[in-house]
Design brief:
It is a single chain. The chain is α+β, with helices and mostly antiparallel strands and about 450 residues long. It has helices spanning about 10-20, 25-30, 40-50, 60-65, 100-105, 110-115, 150-165, 185-190, 210-220, 225-235, 250-255, 265-275, 275-290, 310-325, 355-375, 385-400, 400-415; strands at about 135-140, 145-150, 195-200, 290-295, 300-305, 335, 345, 345-350. The strands form 3 sheets. A 4-stranded antiparallel β-sheet has the order 4-5-3-6. α2 (about 25-30) crosses α3.
């Protein structure tokens, strides 16, 4: 068999072997030899010549192998778009060759981009008005979650990076969190009606992703090292020491280093891309044991037939996570059998993904109280916008059950919601013509 004789089925099998292999000549040679030992070396050479950098998913490798007969060998004079360093660009992203190019694209001066990137760490011990993030603590059953939200100007810079660059780089197909047309329902759907459902949780997901791993993402796209470093610095932070008081030592240690801030618009997309190799290996593990695999942010899910060796799966996945720079939270691993409630991201998946009945009943009772006794006194959790809070809960339930959604919306329409009160700007508020202060920057 040669590349000119690859059938679609053979191309699919070879793509599946290659996606878990090292993207080197020897790595591909070893992978291809499992199917075509006599031609593996020749095929590995051809693939590496055409695609020196690994494709982002199995589908791309399949297309490459399928189309090999129609692809000419690259020549030294190839006009494939590269920057002055000779590295090929990947995906339709803006091509910033220098920090000046990046600064102009973001409507910043060089000094401003240096200020926001803070590569030298000068602002780590600066007073609060000079810092780029506002912090908020959320109490959890097991510790504290720190939200680090960028101030307005940095947040707008990050949104530009998200729209122009990160949104154009596809994550692994197994990733369902923070993606258009994906949701907790699509994450849970492949595991519906399975005999065994295993859920795992990655501990300190965002803080465990450091500066170097983010730089590697931007360099893989094609950005020169200096530009990649500035992009990564604009999307990462170091938590001030005062915010670490009361934190457990491992969490404080991670936050003390440069990391993805939970609360920045770029963090979810970057986390998905950093976790791509984890997804590749987890998907390969799932295929090897006849299981399905999906991930929603830091939640991992596997499902399989009743004869699944759960202990082996858990051990192997823990090793994969460790190799990829993550850690599995042992206290949040759950194994659900068919006779038990199988739950993923709050959805019961024994038959089809659905919000638990008690959550629906509780919301019906709340709406009934609002109709009978009025909204006053029902906002026991102190939501800032109680009406929006209620409609958000309806949307969550309605995503998996249209009948329940309709019933709840009809009830909500009968509630006498109070008219929102908008407070006027005080005289000290900054207008559109007032220069930005360091607080805003």
């Amino acid at each position: 068999m040669t590349e000119r004789e690859l059938t679609p089925r053979a191309a699919a099998i070879l793509a599946r072997l290659a996606v878990d292999a090292d993207w080197t000549r020897s790595g591909l040679d070893e992978a291809f030899a499992r199917l075509i030992p006599a031609k593996a070396t020749r095929l590995a050479d051809r693939v590496m010549n055409l695609y020196p950098s690994p494709p982002f998913d199995e589908a791309s490798i399949f297309v490459l192998l399928r189309d090999l007969p129609f692809l000419a060998e690259p020549s030294v004079s190839s006009d494939r778009p590269t920057h002055f360093g000779g590295k090929p660009w990947r995906f339709e992203v803006p091509r910033y060759e220098t920090t000046g190019d990046l600064a102009r694209s973001l409507d910043l001066t060089i000094s401003e981009i240096e200020w926001f990137a803070d590569l030298e760490g000068r602002l780590r011990s600066a007073p609060y008005p000079l810092q780029h993030y506002r912090s908020a603590r959320l109490d959890k059953r097991q510790g504290i979650r720190l939200l680090e939200v960028p101030k307005p100007r940095l947040r707008e810079i990050q949104r530009k990076i998200l729209r122009r660059i990160l949104d154009r780089i596809p994550p692994h197909p197994a990733a369902h969190g923070f993606r258009k047309a994906r949701s907790p329902r699509t994450f849970a759907l492949p595991h519906s009606g399975r005999a065994v459902v295993v859920s795992m949780d990655l501990r300190r997901f965002f803080p465990s992703i450091g500066f170097d791993r983010v730089v590697a993402i931007f360099e893989a796209v094609g950005y020169p090292g200096t530009v990649a470093a500035h992009l990564a610095a604009l999307c990462t932070t170091v938590t001030p020491a005062v915010e670490l008081i009361g934190m457990d030592r491992p969490t404080a240690s991670r936050l003390r280093a440069t990391h993805l801030p939970q609360g920045a618009p770029t963090s979810p997309a970057l986390a998905n891309l950093v976790a791509r190799q984890l997804d590749i290996r987890a998907s390969g593990l799932a295929r090897s044991v006849g299981a399905h695999y999906t991930r929603y942010a830091d939640d991992l899910a596997f499902s399989a037939a009743a004869d699944l060796d759960v202990d082996r799966l858990l051990w192997l996945m823990s090793q994969i996570a460790y190799d990829e720079g993550f850690a599995v939270h042992p206290g949040k691993t759950r194994v659900g059998r068919a006779h038990q409630r199988q739950q993923l991201t709050g959805l019961v998946v024994n038959s089809s993904p659905a919000v638990p009945r008690e959550e629906y009943d509780n919301l019906r009772a709340l709406l009934n109280n609002c109709i009978r006794a009025g909204v006053s006194g029902q906002n026991r959790r102190g939501a800032d916008d109680f009406r929006a809070h209620v409609y958000g809960r309806i949307a969550r339930i309605g995503e998996t059950n249209e009948t329940r959604r309709t019933k709840l919306l009809n009830m909500a329409a009968r509630v006498d919601w109070p008219t929102p009160v908008f407070e006027p700007r005080n005289s000290g508020s900054r207008t559109a013509h007032t220069p930005a202060t360091e607080e805003d920057r």
